[in-house]
Design goal:
The structure is a homodimer. Chain A has about 525 residues and is of the alpha+beta class. The first copy, chain A, has 19 helices and 18 strands. In chain A, strand 1 and strand 2 form a beta hairpin. At the A-B interface, helix 1, strand 1, strand 2, helix 2 and helix 3 of A face helix 1, strand 1, strand 2, helix 2 and helix 3 of B.
Amino acid sequence: MNVLGMFCVRARCGLVGFRTATSLRSFAGITVDQIDEEVAKLLELKAQLGGDDGKHQFVLKTAKGTRDYNPKQMAIREKVFNTIISCFKRHGAETIDTPVFELKETLTGKYGEDSKLIYDLKDQGGELLSLRYDLTVPFARYLAMNKITNIKRYHIAKVYRRDNPAMTRGRYREFYQCDFDIAGQYDAMIPDAECLKIVHEILSELDLGDFRIKVNDRRILDGMFAVCGVPDDKFRTICSTVDKLDKMPWEDVKKEMVNEKGLSEEAADQIGEYVSMQGGMDLAERLLQDQKMSQSKQACAGLSDIKLLFSYLQLFQVTDKVVFDLSLARGLDYYTGVIYEGVLTQAGVAPVSTEAQNGAPAEESVSVGSVAGGGRYDGLVGMFDPKSRKVPCVGVSIGIERIFSIMEQKAEASAEKVRTTEVQVMVASAQKNLLEERLKLLTELWNAGIKAEVMYKKNPKLLSQLQHCEESGIPLVAILGEQELKDGVVKLRVVATREEVDISRADLIGEIRRRTSEA
Amino acid sequence: MNVLGMFCVRARCGLVGFRTATSLRSFAGITVDQIDEEVAKLLELKAQLGGDDGKHQFVLKTAKGTRDYNPKQMAIREKVFNTIISCFKRHGAETIDTPVFELKETLTGKYGEDSKLIYDLKDQGGELLSLRYDLTVPFARYLAMNKITNIKRYHIAKVYRRDNPAMTRGRYREFYQCDFDIAGQYDAMIPDAECLKIVHEILSELDLGDFRIKVNDRRILDGMFAVCGVPDDKFRTICSTVDKLDKMPWEDVKKEMVNEKGLSEEAADQIGEYVSMQGGMDLAERLLQDQKMSQSKQACAGLSDIKLLFSYLQLFQVTDKVVFDLSLARGLDYYTGVIYEGVLTQAGVAPVSTEAQNGAPAEESVSVGSVAGGGRYDGLVGMFDPKSRKVPCVGVSIGIERIFSIMEQKAEASAEKVRTTEVQVMVASAQKNLLEERLKLLTELWNAGIKAEVMYKKNPKLLSQLQHCEESGIPLVAILGEQELKDGVVKLRVVATREEVDISRADLIGEIRRRTSEA
């Protein structure tokens, strides 16, 4: 091992300060191809050392930070999606879909410090690929590739982040995003205001308890950094630190700025003063008069837009929940203007999880926090366009996993049973040797569009057929027996009341439709 | 470089014949962790050498074998999904979801020769992961992990195969599967027959032209191989070759059997005779009497079940499309009983694609072939269960991409315009300075659940507002002007007829609902 270890140390020492890629992509005689080859050899060696152990240590689990959805969870998920999709459709959005992986270079340089969380695919020959980290960058790539300059679209799909999972709080490595974006050159703040209206509508309709929508603007942040004396090249990294204010107290944020990022104590303190400010249109007006802030053109542009935004939010009747909050930063690099975040504020909202159920005291439950976020990103599409043509965009992403967690908890707490199928009627029999007759009737029902099922047994017991109906909430049973067959009728039983009526075979479909139409 | 090169050679030589993993997972002082570390260092070196070149060679594309869906394609996709999902729900299925990637070992040893097509994720530390290759193996893993012995579920999601893409024929590396499976110990052939009924219903309802459903049984194939003199250890590989009969003539299949797989000419010829047979229940009866075939217990069990299956298919009224076809093999390892495949037979069915449109002659269009497939896999769940408890399963997968291709072509050919939004009304104005009034009305409509939009301009031209309605199929325009505001009315314009009526503000929502309720 010394040999290998020595090589690597030598190579890394040699590379200190060496950043210019040569056309041959080689250094000190090492080419990229050679590295590839050596990596392959090492991985093969690894496989030989540990690769055959799989059988003995076989673990029956999903990948770290991911989960299956069982039928009950799916029923809840469908309900949440339906609410969100109807809202997006009410606002006139189309929908698109993009592949789950992109060329690695498509994602490169878009996410700042978060890039390390991107999942890469193994180099199996061919293109280098990564799993999508969000839906925004693929959307921008889609717009540039298809030369689209105007679109209002939603996209609901899974994204992937090699983050530290916190599944009890609804943070996963695979999770859904529900994105709504408006691309196009329009008059200021009108689409931006619509995005906030959408967050307001969705969080209200899902009935998750009280919420706030925090608003800020990247230009205000940058202007603030400038007037507080942050060097230009530190804007992004200081911005990332400010973004941690919802998880860390100011003292720790300040410490990170000063000790880790090398900011002066004075600059940090000035930032600290600004980021404690919250308000509405009035705060924007006051800051426009602020001696220091008003020195920054950028900040003034942002503040004027916040004022305009609030005037539209008044027309949209959503100002009750919106707060202009100077501490809101949002980590991603690509935002250029307005940014916002929807936060649940109700105390005691705690997501359900197996861990939480197994003994964790209810008092420890914390708010799940941010459930929506977004902003304006006018430069992202231009990064993909060969001629750098800009397509201004603004959008919002609903953080659905945390919402699922809350809805699951609610369902758990409620007495109402969640149905996982929509079966209207079960075709049953009390007697033996009637499988063929059951299947015939079942076919009639299916062909008429009735949701129906039968037990896959030749001679099931009536009790077990009825029990299945009770368990899965099937409202009706169509019972066949020798007598019914002779009489040309079916005994229709209402599971809830145990009431039974003979219905002529010809009227059966109409009767089932009538009795289940309110569902 | 010599240093590195020497190390690797030495390590590999040392490992020849060395297959027993020690508990320390180390060899000659090298541990897996150390290898991980060295690999990380080398990859970092590679990134430094070549990582900065991206900008110059940037290619604006989706990954090979994948595609975006634009809003029109999504509208078609939604329609197809709705048809399929209603069928699954009519048959009483619940739905589940699983992560897009699984532990690599979960997929190992399940797909036979196709395993080489699995996408692996890069080893970035932590678990080794692969993208799911189908929905069946994750389903089996889900059942075993949650100790579920009875379920009828559907699952619609994307799967991944590093196959040679043929996008003109709807073959992609990322594609949807729509799976319906029944797990549980039931009386023979009842759930199997329901799966075929489902294929029949879906292919009929999607109205894709004529189709056939081929049926066979793995036990019949294995029995046939046995009586034809194929050695036991060659069953699977010969089965893979038989599977190619839908793409290759018999001569080539025979050549592969004899030349590549080392089968005797005589055995191959005997197989050739059997695999040319097609029929119904009668063929199963005839083969049960066949002198050679009847020597195999396995074949007889399969043939009896085919007979039983056909009796249920008669009750389900689907025998018109079902053929017992001894050439049907299906490549996957996990099937243990009945197998089937739905095939479109209408001549001239050719999928739309940009390549095909750009000059390829229409005569070259070929049938898209198989659009559904499945079978019984009674052993798969047991492979995951620590105590090898078996859960018998049967299922079907709808090959949706080929169906999309056909539906897209149909939409293209049809005069009817595909709407990509559901907007009912556009709020417009002919005069300047009415943005605020437009936004107020828009808010009223949204709050009442009406799907509405507005142009994001302070003073848009009436003509461009009307044009937008024409283009995107919006049926109504609510026009505001000074006079209307004074009178407390809105001018409601029907886009198709250009008819205009003044409606009092109070009645507007009811009137819009009334006029768009048939949609």
